[in-house]
Design a protein that fits this description.
By secondary structure, the chain is α+β, with helices and mostly antiparallel strands. The chain has a single domain, classed as HIT family, subunit A (2-Layer Sandwich). Helices cover 21% and strands 22% of the residues. Strands 1-2-3-5-4 form a 5-stranded antiparallel β-sheet. Strand 2 and strand 3 form a beta hairpin. The termini are far apart. The structure holds adenosine monophosphate and zinc ion. The site of adenosine monophosphate has 10 residues, from loops.
């Protein structure tokens, strides 16, 4: 997807603060953080969201990247949230699959 901002970030066409990366996945800082730690984990290939036929090995790589991010950011023991906004009702604004990793503070008990 030539026009997709997360494709460009994941493939180094746009500079970012990369937290973790491997062959399948990139993890970088959210530009509008909603918590002391707010990192986005994305596949390097373009999928619109989590129900867009994402291969199992890509989902596994994303889960493993969450672990790496949590370790790198020092929130693995204290806890964190992983959120995948999917579609309009969830308020998904960037239509390239991404998991928000949020932590670094005690969070409220609401939906977000
Ligand atoms: P969502 O509502 O789940 O689609 O969230 C999209 C997220 O992407 C928001 O938290 C934005 O702050 C973030 N975002 C959008 N553009 C960029 C960018 N260029 N670099 C980093 N984060 C971005
Ligand atoms: Zn994309």
């Amino acid at each position: 997807m030539s026009d997709c901002i997360f494709c460009k970030i994941a493939n180094h066409e746009i500079p970012t603060t990369m937290v973790y990366e491997d062959d399948l996945v990139a993890a970088f800082a959210d530009m509008n953080p909603q918590a002391p730690v707010h990192v986005l984990v994305v596949p390097k290939q373009h999928y619109a969201n989590i129900v867009d036929g994402v291969p199992a090995n890509t989902l596994a790589a994303m889960a493993s990247a969450v672990d790496e991010v949590a370790k790198a950011k020092g929130i693995r023991e204290s806890g964190f949230r992983v959120i995948a906004n999917t579609g309009d009702d969830a308020g998904q604004t960037v239509h390239h699959l991404h998991w928000h990793v949020l932590g670094g503070a005690k969070m409220g008990e609401g939906l977000l």
